[in-house]
């Protein structure tokens, strides 16, 4: 007789399932390399965390977004070779990863489940997004059915990114019997994104009485930054586990599955401040753009102003001081304060620092232009020449030493055209492209709380391009506290001019700013890309025609 005794019943133990969220950085287009990253991460997850399931991000096999690489004739062949490689490896844990899948002649954004060398299932994303930076309907058809698989006795459902933001896919997956849903993501960062994700996951998990594992990509891809922040919400809508944002790694979560899959609660990472979060996004964006594109180093113009000061700090934090070169290019209007402050920051951060006066070059140009300019008044032409000479110097250093030129313009300036084509806009990557000026000040103060690298005078003195005597930005623009509010309403929230005026702003300020934004679209089309941190950055997010007859108004 068993120890349980006749007439007694043994209690049924909950099924244990250990899931590892592989919050990793993949290189777009590097299918062989990404395949090896999946294999290596799975082996580590098995050895270090005794994983039963390893969940990778959306389109991990190709990187995200692959854009028109998906149209390459060899894409299907390369994906097939990668899938065969992953099967041959016969990895012990089940692996769930994103890949483009062609079915009956149509291409889908899919997820593949492989366990012990066998393809257990394929899921086809049901809701390809087509808004903001997303244009998946250009490439992908829409799937139609849920996928629920038995993994170690647990019914596990699969969804991909946007599926969880729409009604239908998660509901159908839960109705099909899933107790645990693995949601694969390539969700790009913006300032409020993690809070919106959490509110969504809390509601979706609770409404459907199902536990959700949300695994997100991390790293930079051109202007996009993916922040990770992978999470687990239990069937009651409680946050049970969260990976830190912007940190690649393997994050294990153990589940006890009976009537529900209950995650074993973990301590949660501290909530970062907005400034710390944005600063991390800038660092990751710069680091990955420079490294993934094979640049040895970066070079930037250090003017003594706050934008270049913040850009320099981000560059050093992203790449290290030995890969950063700062160049001061003074002119007769450059103040002694700018010279002193630029040198002080460069010395504090320990970067290579050079000073090249543009005065003799400017004089040579003006001598050459003396005849055609005869009888004309000095205007912005002479100011722009100064900026363009600096651009030529930086691009020459770039060519000679293989350095990427970082431009230093912020979103406020780019919006209203307060920049010079082929001058301060000349370069390969604009670190602050999506950072409004008021946030530049906040980020600078934040960075100084980590260690003081930006001189206080740089933060407190009135901003100036120093292209003319006693010049101040606010001589030709509304104050940045007003300007940034107007720009937020017009650029990021699509308010009309009249709707902005109705918010209490001066009509003359609103119409002037709106006109400047509209007429400077041609400049922005020629600007370098930069890190996207808001819901509506210039670039993929906001696509307005350069040539148009639209008039500001209602």
TrEMBL record:
<dbReference type="Pfam" id="PF02540">
    <property type="entry name" value="NAD_synthase"/>
</dbReference>
<feature type="binding site">
    <location>
        <position position="413"/>
    </location>
    <ligand>
        <name>deamido-NAD(+)</name>
    </ligand>
</feature>
<dbReference type="Pfam" id="PF00795">
    <property type="entry name" value="CN_hydrolase"/>
</dbReference>
<dbReference type="InterPro" id="IPR003694">
    <property type="entry name" value="NAD_synthase"/>
</dbReference>
<keyword id="KW-0520">NAD</keyword>
<dbReference type="InterPro" id="IPR036526">
    <property type="entry name" value="C-N_Hydrolase_sf"/>
</dbReference>
<feature type="binding site">
    <location>
        <position position="523"/>
    </location>
    <ligand>
        <name>deamido-NAD(+)</name>
    </ligand>
</feature>
<dbReference type="InterPro" id="IPR014729">
    <property type="entry name" value="Rossmann-like_a/b/a_fold"/>
</dbReference>
<feature type="binding site">
    <location>
        <position position="131"/>
    </location>
    <ligand>
        <name>L-glutamine</name>
    </ligand>
</feature>
<comment type="similarity">
    <text>Belongs to the NAD synthetase family.</text>
</comment>
<dbReference type="GO" id="GO:0009435">
    <property type="term" value="P:NAD+ biosynthetic process"/>
</dbReference>
<protein>
    <recommendedName>
        <fullName>Glutamine-dependent NAD(+) synthetase</fullName>
        <ecNumber>6.3.5.1</ecNumber>
    </recommendedName>
</protein>
<dbReference type="GO" id="GO:0005524">
    <property type="term" value="F:ATP binding"/>
</dbReference>
<dbReference type="GO" id="GO:0008795">
    <property type="term" value="F:NAD+ synthase activity"/>
</dbReference>
<feature type="binding site">
    <location>
        <position position="408"/>
    </location>
    <ligand>
        <name>ATP</name>
    </ligand>
</feature>
<dbReference type="GO" id="GO:0005737">
    <property type="term" value="C:cytoplasm"/>
</dbReference>
<dbReference type="InterPro" id="IPR003010">
    <property type="entry name" value="C-N_Hydrolase"/>
</dbReference>
<dbReference type="InterPro" id="IPR022310">
    <property type="entry name" value="NAD/GMP_synthase"/>
</dbReference>
<keyword id="KW-0067">ATP-binding</keyword>
<comment type="pathway">
    <text>Cofactor biosynthesis; NAD(+) biosynthesis; NAD(+) from deamido-NAD(+) (L-Gln route): step 1/1.</text>
</comment>
<dbReference type="InterPro" id="IPR014445">
    <property type="entry name" value="Gln-dep_NAD_synthase"/>
</dbReference>
<feature type="domain" description="CN hydrolase">
    <location>
        <begin position="17"/>
        <end position="257"/>
    </location>
</feature>
<feature type="binding site">
    <location>
        <position position="384"/>
    </location>
    <ligand>
        <name>deamido-NAD(+)</name>
    </ligand>
</feature>
<feature type="binding site">
    <location>
        <begin position="301"/>
        <end position="308"/>
    </location>
    <ligand>
        <name>ATP</name>
    </ligand>
</feature>
<keyword id="KW-0547">Nucleotide-binding</keyword>
<feature type="binding site">
    <location>
        <position position="187"/>
    </location>
    <ligand>
        <name>L-glutamine</name>
    </ligand>
</feature>
<feature type="active site" description="Proton acceptor; for glutaminase activity">
    <location>
        <position position="58"/>
    </location>
</feature>
<feature type="active site" description="Nucleophile; for glutaminase activity">
    <location>
        <position position="161"/>
    </location>
</feature>
<feature type="binding site">
    <location>
        <position position="193"/>
    </location>
    <ligand>
        <name>L-glutamine</name>
    </ligand>
</feature>
<comment type="similarity">
    <text>In the C-terminal section; belongs to the NAD synthetase family.</text>
</comment>
<dbReference type="GO" id="GO:0004359">
    <property type="term" value="F:glutaminase activity"/>
</dbReference>
<comment type="function">
    <text>Catalyzes the ATP-dependent amidation of deamido-NAD to form NAD. Uses L-glutamine as a nitrogen source.</text>
</comment>
<dbReference type="GO" id="GO:0003952">
    <property type="term" value="F:NAD+ synthase (glutamine-hydrolyzing) activity"/>
</dbReference>
<feature type="active site" description="For glutaminase activity">
    <location>
        <position position="125"/>
    </location>
</feature>
<keyword id="KW-0436">Ligase</keyword>
